[in-house]
Specification:
- The protein is an all-alpha fold and 130 residues long.
- It has a domain at 38-126.
- 48% of the residues lie in helices and 0% in strands.
- The protein has helices spanning 4-7, 22-27, 42-55, 60-68, 71-80, 88-93, 102-114.
- The radius of gyration is 15 Å and the shape is globular.
């Protein structure tokens, strides 16, 4: 039986200096906040790569993303921090809906993939004040 990365048409990137290392970027919380990441498409590439990892998940990808990549922490900052790259908190404070685009759609799917009931908004600093 072939592993998910061998079944895929998309081959995993080499972890060398020439290619991005997505797990290290997640772990370092890069791109989760405004102005921390680059605006050259790296954030979109990161989100789509993580999404594809979850679609190909055979248990190991999710474990890597949760434990090594600390994806839950990254998503918490991205969505709920006032300086989060999603700009969702700022939009909600202005009583506006978050923008509708592919990047936010993929990020929302990732939030649903990794959501554990009560884990994302259980601390007071992440609750929206009226």
């Amino acid at each position: 039986m072939l592993g998910s990365s061998r079944r895929s048409l998309i081959r995993p990137q080499q972890n060398d200096a020439s290619g991005p290392n997505y797990l290290k970027r997640l772990r370092a919380q890069v791109d989760a906040r405004i102005n921390e990441g680059s605006d050259d498409g790296t954030l979109e590439e990161l989100l789509f790569h993580v999404y594809l990892m979850m679609l190909e998940n055979d248990g190991k990808n999710e474990l890597q993303l949760r434990e090594y990549g600390r994806i839950e922490s990254w998503l918490r900052i991205y969505w709920f921090d006032e300086a989060g790259s999603s700009l969702a908190s700022l939009n909600l404070l202005k009583h506006e809906w978050p923008m509708s685009n592919a990047r936010l759609s993929v990020a929302m799917w990732l939030l649903w993939f990794f959501l554990k009931f009560g884990s994302f908004c259980s601390s007071p600093e992440h609750k929206i004040q009226s």
